Amino acid sequence: MPPLSRLSVLLTLAWAASPALSQTLTLEDALNKALRGDPTYLASEKTLEAGREARPQGVAGILPTISGSATRYQRDYTGGTYAGTTLTPKTFAVSLSQPIFNLSLLRKAQQGTQKVASAEATFTKARQDTFIRVAAAYFDVLSAQDDLSSAQAEKKAIAEQLEQAKRSFEVGTATITDQQEAQARFDLILANEIKAQNTLDVNRHALSLIVRETVSGPLKSIQKSIPIPRPEPLDPLAWVDQARSSNPSVRKAEADLETARLQVGAQFAGHLPSLNLVANRTVARDASTTAAAADYEYNYVGVELSIPIFAGGLVTSQVREAAALRSKAELDLEAARLSAEQEARSAYLNVLAGLAQVSAYEAAEKSSQLALDSNKLGYEVGVRINIDILNSQQQLFTAKRNLSKARYDVLLASLKLKAAVGALSLADVQAVSQLMAKASD
After folding, report:
1. Contact status, residue 282 vs residue 348, Cβ threshold 8 Å
2. pTM (two decimals)
């Protein structure tokens, strides 16, 4: 058996021996599996879970604080009036403190809400990124799968042309040049087939890591023209405007800016007085072997006023620091808006260009097929030579590969456009999956 054939068999057996995922894996199936098992996505869920605790933690500062204490110790008198006396005092106390006016704590409570909004925006972006990662990995497998099928079909066509050239040379109707040209093309396509098989194996493994299961069987690729919808609305400025306000990175930057503004107020509150309602109840019990023992109880309720006078310039420095961070947050927000604008505009243009490319490559595939048929007919009647057929075959299969990639690229671009405006959802991926299923029959 030739080395290349043995390699092909070994690769096939290796994939067959691995635990395989269903060959009917759809894009929707892949995404659902990733949402259940992808560690990157699951980590973002835990990050959101932790981030949501910022709200109750911030509110806790303006709620009552109740604490209790209990002490017990032994006191031995070794001299003086009570020499030789041992006391074991026990004290129990309950204290309550309720802020009445504390601007710093109020601002921190408001910051908690903004921090939760920031965490939720971060999670939204992570979720959308997962959608895009799964779709990109899935389309990479399909594209590599189509490239391999195209290479194998081209190899078969070249092999037939090579055999025909050999027969023609043997009977003297063609020169050795025709046979050598066909052999050169055949050797080249063998190398391309090996490369395509390796790319497919790598891409399958990448998808397997995301869905957490081995993907070994062929996926259903697009076999016919697919009605990819155009962006709605068909106005780039509408998408840009939506991206500048709804992109998850923009929403996060807006929440971070509001948090920074509140932080300035919280630090400035260090110059202001604070007022707390305080209450306490204490019970003391002394156990003694003498009459020196005493029991007592006392309660108090009042207000506590704290007025800052001087802290070595710390508060003033903290206010300046917070103001600088607020300015940074404002610039971060503008940078996020510009990035979102570029992301939306690029995705919009990529969708339009992709749709145009798909139409062009569909036309190129049809015309290349006609050119190949014409060259074959011309070869039979003697007006075309072997190299003309080889060139036509190469042109046809190149058009097929380009068409396949263009279809997947435009579908991915349409998902990226939705993500750029913060509108990408599971329903969008399901719609693409269903569209592909109809075109794969």
Report:
1. no
2. 0.84
